[in-house]
Design brief:
heterodimer, A: 78 residues, mainly alpha, 30s Ribosomal Protein S18, 4 helices, B: alpha+beta, Alpha-Beta Plaits, 4 strands, 55% helix
């Protein structure tokens, strides 16, 4: 069952950072529509393992999400 | 404090010795269902604070009505204003305190924009996003079509190959088929020509 190709997860190393592809120098807290997909249903930030973001951009994303939360653009907790 | 002071000093020695003025970004959130008078009062009050600090307004962006992700002081909707200002860094603390006290401002955020930051208005950003989305959708569709085409081509090739393989494997069957057909035709003719058959 474990070797069933349909059940196997894609290799996380194959994922590419969506911000690196767009050559993003910074992540703005004001364009919350772009940040929102990187938070889950409960409002917490998705892990790097699942989104494929690089460490540099994940740190930028973290500050952007925190600021957007403070300004009421994103939810702290659903 | 010493650390805070020492850092900008190093920067200013290199970059701007004559003017110690930096670009800041200030976003302000105030409740939405307001009279025009009250709204104007809030915006005027905020701008007065900036004026007192000797700030020069670079850009002002009115976002307008926005839904909030969670209720703030009982308000479910708010309006955003975003200012880009050139302020003397020593006056930031005073502005922050004044905005904290100010009546009618729900939230405010006074930040130094990141390096390489480009000031874009919300409406321009929205237009750009729309254009980008269209191009992305087009690309996705073309990719889909190419994939489908390749799939069909592969299938056709495979089918052709299979037929060829079959021909190679048993070429004798093909020759027999026409003979059988002839026999069939003959038998059929016989049956048809039979007068004894009554249907």
């Amino acid at each position: 069952m474990a070797n069933n190709p349909q059940q196997r997860r894609s290799d996380p190393r194959l994922k590419k950072c969506p911000f690196c592809e767009g050559n993003a120098k910074y992540i703005d807290y004001k364009d919350y529509p772009t940040i929102k997909p990187f938070t889950d249903y409960f409002g917490s930030i998705r892990q790097r393992y699942y989104t494929g973001i690089c460490l540099k951009h994940q740190k930028m994303l973290r500050t952007a999400v925190q600021r957007a939360r403070f300004m009421g653009m994103l939810a702290y907790r659903k | 404090m010493t650390l805070l002071r020492s850092k900008p000093a190093a920067d200013t020695d290199l970059d701007d010795q004559e003017s110690d003025i930096r670009l800041y970004e200030c976003s302000i959130l105030y409740p939405f269902p307001l009279n025009q008078k009250e709204e104007k009062e809030i915006i005027d009050g905020v701008e007065e604070i900036f004026k007192e600090a000797g700030a020069r307004e670079v850009e002002k962006d009115l976002w307008g009505r926005r839904g909030l992700a969670y209720p703030i002081k009982g308000h479910n909707e708010g309006s955003f204003v975003i200012y880009h200002l050139e302020i003397d860094p020593s006056k930031i603390k005073g502005i922050n305190e004044a905005l904290n006290i100010m009546h009618g401002v729900l939230r405010h955020l006074l930040l130094k924009p990141p390096a390489g930051y480009q000031i874009t208005k919300l409406s321009d950003g929205y237009k750009k996003w729309l254009d980008e989305r269209e191009t992305v959708e087009e690309r996705r569709e073309s990719e889909k079509e190419a994939k489908l085409e390749r799939h069909v081509m592969d299938k056709a090739k495979r089918h052709a190959k299979r037929v060829e393989d079959k021909k190679k494997e048993n070429p004798s069957t093909e020759k027999e088929v026409p003979i059988e057909k002839d026999k069939l035709a003959e038998e059929l003719e016989k049956l048809i020509s039979d007068d004894e058959l009554n249907l």
